[in-house]
Design goal:
alpha/beta, FAD/NAD(P)-binding domain, seven-stranded mixed sheet, six-stranded mixed sheet, 18 strands, globular
Amino acid sequence: MAQTALISGIGVAGPTAAYWLAHNGWKVTVIERADSLRLGGQNIDITDAARDVVSKMGIMDDIKDRHTGEKGLQFVDTDNTAKASFPVEKKGSLTREIEILRGDLVDILVNATPKSVEYRFGVSIDTLEEKDNGVEVTFDDGTTGTFDIVIAADGMNSSTRTLILGEEGHEDYLGCWSSYFTVPRLERDNDWWRWYTSPTGVIAFLRPDNQGTMRASVNFLSDENDPPRMSLADKKAELRKRLDGAGWEAERLSDALEDVDDIFLGPLHQIKSKTWSRGRCVLAGDAAHCPTPYTGMGTTLALIGSYILANELAAHTNHEDAFKAYEEKFRAFAEKSQKLPPGVPDLAYAQSRFKVSLINAGASIAASSAVQGFASLFGGGSKVDEDEFDLPDYEKAKAA
């Protein structure tokens, strides 16, 4: 009889783990609390050995076909004048070779999973109870099921992680909030990621997508790390408050919120759990090791980690051995990927025009030909680097 797995969360990690478990003969069910696929979201990138993972899944061409077309990163002033430009091939650019909308990647991953994988929407886990022969799960719609393994892949704010490990000691608050939403594209927009630093302590982004719209982000410092649940109206009111008097495209973004029906807004935490598993339950993706957008590594970690977790489960008869191997092979890289530059994110936020001028001047110096040439001596230049992580080849291991 095939082994069974329940995966909570249809983001990047969940479908990736489902793909590889099903590829190895497991019977997989994936649940999502939303009523349908969440196809919104911001531009994300795929780097390091994650490129090898999607190549093994046969979806690299599909991903490249949905490239956002982003040319690189520009620091702009309140008049929308570029103070520093980092094309995609330049050292210091946060735009990578493979840029795709999060929703597009999720759509590709779900469509790549075998037909045997069952997807259930509008449902979440209510309780978990471990038995000798598996985990008994009660869902919030009153249904139940028993599975050999339960995987929490439901993101930074994972409710499943809390059921598995409890509430304490997992979140490291970075002192700032972030938001993502989609706005209409205007004639003055271009195909650069435009980064604006306001003297009011707000950082705002506008990034191109492949759907004729723009992806916006508003970011700010806050002491509030555990806000009450916010309605859509609450989120719009908070963003309008932060955008008031910020300059640049602030008024445009504030006005555009009127027609926005999907906003991510909340505090940013890094997830640093001492263990990624308990009993027959295990964490994957941001639920296990969220690095936050400041590292640009969230998608890469989700793809690599889920690949390793699923293949280790297939390679071992005992789940405890599989979970141990998963952490031994991947935890060090995940933790290294969480490291932030000194002073980040605080130094990125300005509280005066003088600080804004320093930030833009620093970016201009970094983008200069002299600095770029010097940096290239130390391996800078293209973002297409050699893989730092040595991805295990489980097919070769089977053949041996």
